[in-house]
Structure formats: C-alpha cells, structure tokens
Amino acid sequence: MKSTNLKNLAVLLLAGSIYAFAPFKVVSYKVDGQSSKLNWQAKKATGEHSGTIAVSSGTLNVENNVLKGGSFELDTKSITVTDVTDAETNGKLLGHLKSDDFFGVEKYPKANFVITSAKPLTGGQYEIKGKLTIKGVTNEVSFPATVKVDNAKLTANAKITVDRSKYGIKFRSKSFFENLGDKLIYDDFDLNVALVANK
User: Fold this and answer.
1) Domain range for 46
2) In angstroms, how far is CA 100 from the centroid of its own chain?
C-alpha cells in the first residue's frame, strides 16, 4: 500500500513539474480595423492641424497575457483632416498631405510598425520598441503603451512621436531650410493609436 501511494505521489509531482516548466502558448490577436483608431496631430509656427488615418490590418502576439510582439499597418490614402471645417480649405490641405511633399500616398499607400521588443512594466504598462516605415523609409522608435488583455479581446493605447525629417518629409522643415519664420512646420508630429484586437 505504501509503495502504491509513493508511486502515485511521484506521478503527481512529476506531472506538476512538467506543467510548471511547460512553455505558455503564444496566442495571436487580429487587429480590428473598424474598431481601432489612429489620430494624428502636427504643429506649425502659426497653429496646428489634426486628423485620422485608418488602421488597415495587424496582429498582436500574447503569451500568458503578456504582449510579446506584433505589427500593424496603416492605409495612408485614408488620411483625413478633422480640424478644418471649410470644405475648400480642407480639400486643399488634404490634397497637399497626400502629395509627395508629405506622404506621397499614390506611391506609398501603406505605412507600418513592427514591434521588436515589448518590455512589461506594471499595471499593463509597456516600453515598446520597434521599426516604423513611412514612405519606404524605416527608423526605430520607442514609446510607452498601455495594453489590456481581457480573454478574447486586447486593447492597446499609445502615443508615438515621429520626426518626419527622418522619413524624407522636408516641406518647410527647419532640418532642411533656414529662415522659415511663420511658415515653419515642426518636424515632430504625434500618432495617437488605439488598437482593438480579437483572438
């Protein structure tokens, strides 16, 4: 009897140790482009402008409820201007943003971001590093993000500050032109990203 009990105990301990050291399965969450949002904001010497860009696709990888990696893609042709109410003025600004002076959407209809590392901190906070590609140019960026995994749904929120001069967007940039005065457009612009992804 004692021998049988010892054998049973040994089996349980072995099973527990295997479970404890077994790797967690990586689960992929597909980004919902309809529910996800991206708002942009750019500033100039005389004011600022803002608008949206559609998130077209993406995948975020999670292991044991911890973000491990992933990527998402933007449809640059979908860019809008939301702060200008006059239709004619809005159309002119939008056309300029879509031109080669800025995002060149006909030649570069997609932009994307790929996570290279996701360092978990506390309370769902992460330090994200990755590669952002705009107009065919790729640069490394880093930023804080908040990620929440709730069973079959994942939400991620972040503010990414982008230096446009690193992507060849030169129009009225102090990095390429001097004495711009009130025509100056600042190099940094912000992308406020709110991703929703489903298992």
Assistant:
1) 25-198
2) 23
Q: What is the mean pLDDT of residues 7-35?
A: 68
In a domain, 20, yes or no: no
Alpha-helix residue ranges (DSSP H) falling in the chain = 2-21, 87-98
Q: How many domains does the chain have?
A: 1
Residue with tokens 């503010």: 159
CA distances (Å), origin 53, targets 38, 91, 125, 181: 6, 16, 24, 29
Instruction: For residue 65, tell me if it sits in a domain.
Output: yes
Assess if residue 68 is contained within a domain.
Answer: yes
Q: Are 70 and 60 in contact (CB under 8 A)?
A: yes
Identify whether the C-beta of residue 126 lies closer than 8 Å to the C-beta of residue 118: yes
Residue type, 142: S
Q: pLDDT tens, 79-135? A: 999 999 999 999 999 999 999 999 999 999 999 999 999 999 999 999 999 999 999
